[in-house]
Sequence to fold (204 residues):
Amino acid sequence: MDKQTETDIAEGLRAGDPDAWLALYDLYAERLWSHVARLMGSDASSVADIVQETFLAAARSARRFDPQRGSLHVWLWTIARGQVALHYRKARQRSALVQAQTWWMSLDGQKDDWLRGAAKPPVEVLESHELAELVRHTLRELPAEYQLLLTAKYMDDAPIERIADEVQGTHAAVRSKLARARKAFRKVFTRLTRGVGIRQEAPL
Fold:
């Protein structure tokens, strides 16, 4: 592609011109697909997802594109490499979750008593990497406010008074929100561990 065409496309992208986006896609989608496929192998579904996410990310950052720092091709490929790395980070997270779910399934029948509060779990269970993994995955799916309240209360062991000061709320409001946060946590935890030995309760 000649320099003037690239300059015209770059200016169009910064201006939000849809024709510039069509030109960018027509020029680079096939090439980008080929490059990503070389890194990903034959997983066509993942390649398609990464190419799509690359163009979406490019759309969000188009107004900041600076042709003095490199070509459109280099810019797109830099974004694509980031998307590939993100894909593999998520894949590792999914693998860690599966391992944690398998561990949960391997626990004996006492875990139902632990969750109901009828018995105290062994220290090795409370301190296990697998339980921490399940808790982290659950928290990541909750709204930010619920994450803040639950981590402050149950991980930092902060008193209600301090939490109320930090979130600028009343004690009663914090207790009410904590109850809703615990309910939301249980719902997500149950879904994450459904079919691996948990019924209706969760560790909060």
About this structure: The radius of gyration is 24 Å.
